[in-house]
Specification:
This protein has about 500 residues and is mostly helical. It contains 17 helices and seven strands. The chain has a three-stranded antiparallel β-sheet, covered by helices on one side. A two-stranded parallel ribbon has the order 4-7. Helix 2 runs antiparallel to helix 15, helix 6 runs antiparallel to helix 12 and helix 10 packs antiparallel against helix 14. The N terminus is likely disordered. It is a multi-pass membrane protein. It is found in: Cell membrane; Membrane.
Length: about 500
């Protein structure tokens, strides 16, 4: 499939010679594009089905609060595991082998979800989370390896193509996997997600020869003593967990919260501990310390943003399932299809935003990073203020129109384009030299913290589909956006030479 998207061209800097390229980019980009597209197809398809399956009478028939808690903790875990996923590639296998292992684990996870048993369901979720953490941290790194350093003029375009692959998979998944899961059989839907990952893994293994040789390198391999120490510590912690849960289980006290609460607390504490450890590092010079102080503002803002944004797949989706009229011109569609709205809008509007920032920059009017973050927070708050309208309609005993929910996803997408790409960029620019390879994992921890907060609220029994809590979150985001905007000059000063 990927080969049909390639064409012959002259290799830059080598007159007269030809090589296969992918729209003018290294041939290996086709391999990574297709791998990520199929992996995202499997991930977003499963994600679109997950909360609906948890509350469905033919599924696990849980309450909306329990479904939201599980969904949020699962997302939190995926992004939390991106940090050790990067460490594993850096110290043990290297990016190329780590991604292959990740693909196998994800596929096995989806197959486990496809088994008609509640006992294996959470094991399947765990496997998908582990595999996604391993893959997420490393496949983007391998895209970077295809280019001749940060000054290669094709680099930004290559990452743009890669981003399109992500959104193509995310767009198609709810339409295919969601339809099969909701209308025919939940477990067949999860099996289709496994098939998607299998296709991605096959594509990756067949095209791996086109990847950069740098992707095979283990940058800082563990010494023999470090390997032994790591294995000892891992075995110790695993034994502690097994003994603890065995005692809880055999004593008859086990409930799902015994699993969810520790993960949620870890999702809140680990981001704080990682940021604090970097901030306290005496090896950082004054400029790096100042940039980290500024970065804390962006990190907290991002955590608030993702806390609300990711509820588009849980709180808003569950509302659509129970209280919305999911029809267009009289034609009814599956609830999971709402999850295709964001990726198609991303593909439509991302080029517009890229052009807009460049046009403003040429005129010297491009907003600062802090201002863009403030805009993102205000927009994500506005999406939940908009959510109040369908909530009021449902409280009046009527079904809310589908376009209300499409409007919520539209506002959230505009907010995402204002904050997310900017956050990725500023993370790489502000990373202290000592932590250059780890800072992207730190950025993902903002998602972890936001989703862990949602999970904790749900575990505590808070109904996130109530007007009061939706209003509170909207106000929180608006206030956070206002705070970032008010202190933008201070943040810009702390950023030093980063613009």
């Amino acid at each position: 499939m990927a080969s049909s998207l390639t064409k012959d061209s002259v290799r830059p800097g080598t007159p007269g010679s030809t090589e296969k390229t992918f729209f003018g980019h290294p041939r290996g980009l086709a391999t990574l594009f297709m791998t990520e597209m199929w992996e995202r197809f499997s991930y977003y398809g499963m994600k679109a089905l997950l909360p609906l399956y948890l509350v469905a009478p033919a599924g696990l028939h849980m309450s909306a609060a329990s479904a939201t808690a599980i969904y949020s903790v699962y997302l939190s875990l995926v992004y939390l595991l991106a940090l050790p996923g990067g460490w594993f590639a850096d110290r043990v296998l290297g990016p190329r082998k780590t991604v292959a292992v990740a693909g196998v684990i994800i596929m096995l996870g989806h197959l486990t979800l496809a088994l008609p048993s509640s006992g294996t369901f959470f094991a399947g979720l765990g496997l998908v989370a582990i595999g996604s953490g391993l893959l997420k941290a490393n496949i983007s790194t391998m895209v970077g390896h295809l280019y001749d350093g940060p000054d290669d003029k094709r680099r930004d375009g290559g990452f743009t193509l890669f981003y399109i692959g992500i959104n193509l998979g995310a767009f198609a998944a709810p339409l295919i996997i969601g339809t099969v899961g909701e209308n025919y059989n939940w477990h067949l839907g999860f099996a289709l997600a496994a098939l998607g990952m299998a296709l991605g893994l096959a594509q990756y293994l067949l095209g791996t020869r086109h990847l950069s040789s740098r992707s095979d390198i283990v940058p800082t391999p563990l010494s023999a003593e470090e390997k032994r120490a790591t294995l000892r510590k891992s075995a110790l912690w695993a034994a502690v967990a097994v003994v603890f849960y065995a005692i809880v289980g055999f004593s008859g006290h086990y409930t799902l919260n015994w699993l969810l609460v520790p993960i949620t607390i870890a999702g809140l504490l680990i981001p704080v501990m990682v940021i604090a450890r970097i901030k306290r590092d005496k090896d950082l010079d004054r400029s790096e310390q100042s940039k980290m102080s500024a970065y804390i503002w962006f990190f907290i803002a991002a955590a608030v943003f993702w806390m609300i944004y990711d509820q588009g797949g849980s709180t808003v989706s569950l509302f659509a399932d129970s209280s919305a009229k999911n029809t267009i011109f009289g034609w009814e569609f599956p609830v999971s299809w709402y999850q295709s709205v964001n990726p198609v809008m991303i593909m439509a509007f991302a080029p517009v935003f890229a052009w807009m920032w460049l046009a403003l920059a040429r005129r010297g009017k491009e907003p600062s990073t802090a201002t863009k973050f403030a805009m993102g927070l205000v927009l994500i708050g506005a999406s939940f203020f908009l959510f109040l309208a369908p909530l009021a309609i449902a409280d009046g005993g009527h079904k809310a129109a589908a376009m209300w929910l499409v409007g919520i996803y539209f506002v959230q997408t505009v907010g995402e384009l204002t904050l997310s790409p900017v956050g990725l960029s500023v993370t790489t620019k502000m990373a202290p030299a000592k932590y250059a390879s780890q800072m992207m994992g730190v950025w993902f921890l903002a998602v972890t913290a936001g989703d862990a907060t949602t999970g904790l609220l749900s575990i505590a029994g808070v109904d996130l589909n109530k007007t009061g809590i939706v209003t509170l979150q909207a106000v929180l985001a608006a206030l956070a956006g206002g705070a970032v905007w008010m202190y933008r000059k201070k943040v810009k000063q702390l950023m030093g030479d980063v613009h």
